[in-house]
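Support request, please re-run this one:
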Amino acid sequence: LNYPLGPKRLQQNLDFLVSNLGYEVPSGRASLLALVRQVVLKLPPPLLHEQADRLLLPLVARLVNETDRSCVAAVGEAVRALLGRVCAQSGGAKAAGARERVLKLLRAWFAAAPQQPALARAAAQLAG
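Re-run finished. Output below.
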């Protein structure tokens, strides 16, 4: 990500990646998930903190619904990279806000466990 992108263009690129997480061919999903992981690792922290929700929710949905074992591992790596960077202790107010949003999601998903076990399973997978 050495090429400067405007906020709108970055948003379009991330939306394109997220919209293709459900690609029907497993090898294509695996390639896309590897790309998402690299984007997560290379985005500057302030941008990543702003975009964390946009990436996390579709990745968790893919993690819960994925049937291919190699893709499950790839989703796990992408989520692990995202959470590792978002939940790092450095980063100031944006990082703290992103961490709080992730924790708020986990708490809400655990609270919904009796009615929606899939959400509880997703929260447990994210919490490690």
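The two ends are 29 Å apart (CA to CA). The helical segments are 7-19, 26-42, 45-65, 69-86, 92-111, 117-127.
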